[in-house]
What does this fold into?
Amino acid sequence: MVKIATWNVNSIKARLANVLDWLDSAEPDVLLLQEIKTLENNFPRLEFETRGYNLLIVGQKAYNGVAIASRDKLHKPLTRLPGERADEQARYAEATTFGVRVASLYLPNGNPMGGDKYDYKLRWMARLRRHAIDLLASEQPVVLGGDYNVIPAPEDVYDPAGWENDALYALETRRAFRAIVHLGLSDAFRALHPDERAYTYWDYQGMAWSNDHGLRIDHLLLSPQAADRLESCHIDRAPRGCDKASDHTPIWCTLETTP
DNA sequence: ATGGTCGGCCTCCGA
It folds into this structure.
């Protein structure tokens, strides 16, 4: 069995104690991190390495930044999403570990609607779709995990009507997300919990956490070869309630080991 | 009574 988790930590330095506590209790084999908000050289490597994790870090100063931590070696690393050479933002890391092709992705937020930011989000989603075609053609187990900044359906947000003009839920955003999933990927959480209302993100503002005004925007999308091995998927709400919490909480899945 | 989101970085931007 291999346990793969994803967590937008909103600064690895500000969140280090929370992340290490969670690593020690949840013991994921692979942790996909987003919004580390630091350059590779300033990432707290030692704390992960002493716990037996290898690292692939794609850093950026102050903004964005993703990483993969794994108890197995990380083979054939890819540190940029193909398709737009001028894109300097650190939003994508991919490698093979435990025989699974895993990606840690931080999809652009896209707000405000109708400007450069939203155009960039849609272009990024088109690039992800194009890349997913190639990954699926390889017929290997693939787990594309991360902060998608996409609310897939009304049951994934506390107030769907209030979010219709937001880049996380706009019709065009949901269509672009479905166009990726419909290539043949499975949303691990929704596949195993079809009727469960569950969120992965609660804004810091307006008492969103205490009112459970959340969004489900962190996802694990699985290729058929991974989905056939899917045995569990859970959102761990506990870290969101801790002191100095990230606004996102971890979601993880387990894949059966191949016989 | 007070203040009311947070992180990074430099006084504001991004989320």
Summary: Chain A has a mean pLDDT of 97. The CA atoms of residues 130 and 250 of chain A lie 27 Å apart. Helices of chain A lie at 16-26, 45-49, 116-137, 171-181, 188-192, 224-227.
